[in-house]
Each structure stands twice: as C-alpha cells, then as structure tokens.
Amino acid sequence: MKKKCGYIFVAVVLLLAAAFVWWNRETTFLSSITAEEVSAVAVRDGHTGKAFEVTAEEEIAYIVREIKSASFHREGLSLFRMGTWFTLSFLDEQGDVAREIIVNGAQTIRKDPFFYQTETGNLQNLIDYFCATEESAA
Q1: Among the listed residues 40, 94, 95, 96, the one whose alpha carbon sits nearest the alpha carbon of residue 63
Q2: Digit-coded pLDDT (tens) for 4-34
Q3: How far, in whole angstroms, is CA 101 from its chain's centroid?
Q4: pTM, full prediction
Q5: What SS3 state is found at 79?
Q6: What φ, ψ does residue 94 adopt, rounded to 5°?
Q7: Which helix (H) or strand (E) holds 131?
C-alpha cells in the first residue's frame, strides 16, 4: 500500500513539474509559416471596427518577420475575456485562414486560450504600421 502511494506521489510531482516547464517555456508565433505561403493579411482594428487587407509581398514579409522576431511566454488565460486591438488573419493562396492571432498591445498577443507576453522584442513597430496603414486607407 505504501509503495502504491509513493508511485502516485511521484507521478503527481512529475506531472506538476512538466506542467510548470510547459507553462514557462518560450513560444514564438508563425514559426511553421513563411511569408511566401501568405497571400494576404486581413487586419481588423478592434478599437474602431475598421478592416483592411495587406496584399503586397514586401509588407506581408515585414509583418511575418516582426511577429517571428519576438518570443513570448504564457501570461494567463484569455477565456471569457473580451476586447482586441488588431486581429490578424493570415490567408493562404486559396483565401482560407492559415493562422489567426490577436495583437492586444506592444507586449501582448492573444491566441486563445492564453495571453502571451513578450520575452524578447515587442510589437510596437507593427502596431505603428497598422495604425498608419489604417489611416491611409480611410
């Protein structure tokens, strides 16, 4: 009986240690997608409700590079929380959504069910780019 309890205790400790490592490991976004695979980036501003598409290859490459250059860690659960800044939908050649992420600020990305905080880099240049593009599209 003591042996069985010991095994259960060890299993629980190992499970908690694995969960801790998984929670705290560094994450990057768009690592499995290249700019060449993206035909357009549909952007929706959650503050204004305006939407626009980025279709120029060099601009798509810039967006993908900026997101890939930052690394993130999990910050908390995003379930049941509302509000976004920029919702980015990366469309493939067929027009289907290949990836979707939400930029909530210069240091925060939301990809349900988690919020991610930047470890290295930030997204301020990308936010400035989207704001300028949105103003010029209006």
Answers
A1: 40
A2: 777 787 788 888 878 777 666 667 788 888 8
A3: 5
A4: 0.79
A5: coil
A6: -85, -5
A7: helix 124-137
- DSSP letter (8 states) at residue 49: -
CA atoms within 13 A on the CB side of 101: 18
Among 98, 95, 85, 92, residue whose Cα is nearest residue 43: 85
Element holding 118 (H helix, E strand): strand 114-120
Angle at 128 between CA 125 and CA 132, to 5 degrees: 140
How many residues does this entry show for the chain? 138
Cβ atoms of 84 and 77 within 8 Å: the answer is no
Q: Are 43 and 86 in contact (CB under 8 A)?
A: yes
Q: What is the pLDDT of residues 102-117, one digit of tens each?
A: 999 889 999 878 899 9
Q: Which residues contact 105 (CB under 8 A, 6 or more apart)?
A: 85, 123, 127
